[in-house]
Amino acid sequence: MGVIATSDARCKDCYKCVRHCPIKAIKVVGGKAQVWDELCIHDGACINVCPQDAKRAEPHLPRVEAFLRGGLPVVASVAPSFAARWPGQFEDLSGILMNLGFYDVQETALAAESVARAHVAEMQSRMESGGPFPVVTSSCPAVVSLVETHFPEWIELLADVVSPMVAHGRMIKRQHGGNVRVVFIGPCVAKKHEMALPTHSESVDAALTFDELAELLERNDIDLAGHEGSLPGAAVAPATARLFPLEGGLLQTADIDVSMMNMLRGSFEVVSGVRECLDFLREVAHGGDGARLAELMACRDGCIGGPYIDVDSNPLQARRDRVWDWYREEGGEEEAPAVGDARDMKRRYRARPGLLVDPSEDELDEILSKMGKDDPEDHLNCGACGYDSCREKAVAVFRGAAEVEMCIPYMRKRAESMASVIMHEMPSGIIVADRDLRIVSINPAIERMFYCRTDQMKGKKLGYLIDPKHFRRVLQTGEMSIVEGEYPSYNRKTKEYIFYVEDQDMVIGILVDVSQEEKHRRELVTLRKESILRAQEVIDKQMRVAQEIAGLMGETTAETKTLLTSLMQVIENDPQAEQ
Fold first, then answer.
1. Considering the entire predicted model, what is its pTM?
2. How far from each other are the two terminal CA atoms of the chain, in whole angstroms?
3. Residue 158: beta bridge partners?
4. Can you tell me the distance from the alpha carbon of 309 to that of 6, in angstroms, rounded to the nearest whole number?
5. Alpha-carbon span 231 to 90, nearest angstrom
6. Domain boundary residue among 344, 377, 394?
7. Which CATH number does the domain housing residue 405 bear?
8. Which of 49, 188, 325, 505 sits at a 20 to 30 Å CA gap from 238?
9. Read out DSSP for 31-90?
10. 190 closest CA partner among 151, 148, 144
11. What is the per-residue pLDDT across 129-155, written as a single tens digit (0 to 9) for each?
């Protein structure tokens, strides 16, 4: 299973996730939209836009609960964007988590300053060596996946620096020993993918979303809003590091000097949102943009716009204000900058090109033809399938990511064509009439039954063709009627099924011609009667023959008796018989 899974029972062929995924990392199979994990950057947009709640991130809560029961120390690393959803409650949360069995609770921001400074250091190093530029920040795992998968030629632009989550996980394991379990808690889905990478697998053991955190509290009947608690002696993150989840937060966290700020003036760019990141990288690919340092964030407005930040209940400005309030918390500004081990900062990348194959023009034309797009005017580019153009959708069909049937105009045309075929080939007659009982349509079977033509009947009153009384009753009652109809002038007898179609305000009659059946029934009755008469004649004749035979046999028997008696007398009176 991938990081984001689809519930087949909930997925309803709406293609909304396809429309909202800028990189189209969705495969529609059997009408169900599955996440194409090899292409997915795990930004989680499809989770938020799904109207049926059919997309879910891989759950890590069961794993964390197992850690808490396992006996080894468990340390929580809480992202600074926590304040955007639960303002001013970090100390309360720390006390709750300690009571639930966590050994320690720390701010991920403890490592953020080291990460930010490592980015600036790499930029300075590239300035000395002549590039490459721009330095693309690597703290957002969704952006890293975007470059590795879709822009592998620009992998060298990524800063050779881990994210704050990974850096903090490594710091915790150095601090508490390798057996400690590190649980990251944040608004991000991509962290679940990032922590499982081979280069990071020893840093973090589980990544809970804020929703999973809320579920953990709910399972233990804990109301964070009504709880008071604190974590004695907790390490306090540098104040500026708490700004890391905001747009432009990396430079603010790095707290660079004035000379560096002047050097970066006009050459530092902040980009948030997957579509915007795509546009930026395409511009770089075409030789545009003169930025030296580019902070790219997949979620619009930065981490405070993450998929599990609950943006619907928390307006953007409120989220920003809460993070700034957390930054201004007393004590934070007085802490010394966090210093991370240099070994905790480095990372490697892996380019993943070749996952997408383009069709040839002939293959593309063949797919477009299957979609009913033989002519350019058929390319409606309506976007109902989730793709911006029919051509783009055809490419997705070639790659196995889409189905021909996803095209709504195509399916409507196909349905209309099928309905036309059914009506045309139906052996029974079909009459469609409007509320005024004027004929809207008839099929060829009606033409044959009543010796008429569609162009003659269309628009005429139904009474011109047949008695409309049964149709009128169905219109008045709305109830289906099954009746028999006789049309002597046409030598027809029918069984009629008449029903009302409310949406179209029309009445439809299906006339089954039973004339031949009736003829066969009458012929069968006649045959039965004739058979009975013939049988009776045969019986009567047999009786007569039997009687005649009996009479003849009686006469013959009497004659035989007389003859034999005479013979016996002759024998008895013969004198020679005694000798």
1. 0.72
2. 128
3. 136
4. 21
5. 9
6. 344
7. 1.10.15
8. 188
9. TEEEE-TTT-----HHHHH-TT--EEEPP-HHHHHHHHHHSS-EEEEE-TTHHHHSTT-H
10. 144
11. 988 989 999 999 999 999 999 999 899
